[in-house]
Design goal:
With 179 residues, the chain is mostly helical. Helices cover 78% and strands 0% of the residues. It has six helices and no strands.
Length: 179
């Protein structure tokens, strides 16, 4: 049973990450023609496209994609609960889904920041993925750089952002221990 739970959790989480990345790419207006962006759009468009006809965007915020993220998280919760014959409270599932999307977003931001930091040591900005990672993370790192300038050529903004993300994740875990 553990292997099945792992597989279901992993598959839902991976698709949820792709949906969140689509929303994030749209919010920062990242390069649409980048190969990573194209993959994310192609993986989510069969569902997001029809949803957009029904659910309008609010400014630059794509509500259809956000609703898809909440639905994917809700399906994950419901599927795992049914595997264990758990009780399903619709309001509880909705709240846990929104919290799950937030937690997954924080986790995804952590991994993107870490990947950007590692790639900065290796590729030196020549890869198309470097450019997308820059576009995704710069809105979070630029305000930190204004407060904390580079010290001796070292950019500590990624470290500060990762510490802040870990704090937020632990805070959410304390507030919602069941998820």
């Amino acid at each position: 049973m553990n292997a099945t739970v792992f597989l279901v959790d992993t598959l839902f989480s991976l698709y949820l990450m792709v949906v969140i990345l689509r929303l994030w790419l749209q919010m920062v207006q990242a390069d649409f023609y980048n190969p990573l962006s194209q993959f994310i759009v192609k993986a989510t468009h069969p569902i997001v496209g029809p949803l957009r006809r029904v659910i309008p965007s609010i400014g630059r915020f794509d509500t259809a994609t956000f609703v898809l993220a909440v639905v994917v998280c809700a399906l994950k919760i419901v599927t795992l609960a049914l595997m264990f014959n758990g009780n399903l409270n619709p309001l509880g599932v909705l709240i846990l889904s929104v919290v799950g999307v937030i937690k997954e977003t924080l986790s995804l931001l952590f991994w993107v920041l870490l990947l950007r930091a590692i790639l900065s040591w290796v590729s030196q900005g020549r890869s198309p993925i470097d450019y997308v990672l820059y576009q995704l993370t710069e809105p979070f790192l630029a305000p930190i750089r204004k407060v904390l300038p580079p010290l001796g050529g070292l950019d500590l903004s990624v470290l500060v952002a990762i510490i802040a993300l870990q704090f937020l994740q632990l805070l959410l875990q304390d507030l919602f221990p069941m998820f």
